[in-house]
Amino acid sequence: xxxxxxxxxxxxxxxxxxxxxxxxxxxxxxxxxxxxxxxxxxxxxxxxxxxxxxxxxxxxxxxxxxxxxxxxxxxxxxxxxxxxxxxxxxxxxxxxxxxxxxxxxxxxxxxxxxxxxxxxxxxxxxxxxxxxxxxxxxxxxxxxxx
Length: 146
Description:
146 residues
């Protein structure tokens, strides 16, 4: 990676819908050189994909929380089983295996508090080996660069 690749990545991070011509102009390369570099960044896995960022409120999401999960069994099998259960939960938009007092950090998005209560009780509460659930409610998001 050189300074041109870094410029390409920074520009695409801000706006992944840039046309190749506009991207080339921003980074100071010809369109053909820029396209080759972007394709190589994609092929090598530096660029893993492109995403659409949705407005949660307009999508009917009125409640967002980060949830820490502690397991009663710390085996690899228990962790894999938990991860498989979480993959099926549409309310979970992120799942991270973390260090510290708990094994997992989840980002959970639901319609409202009542929908979250249902998720907490009927989904998380029914997963084997879940020993501790701590909910951190998102009040505001002044910065989000995901």
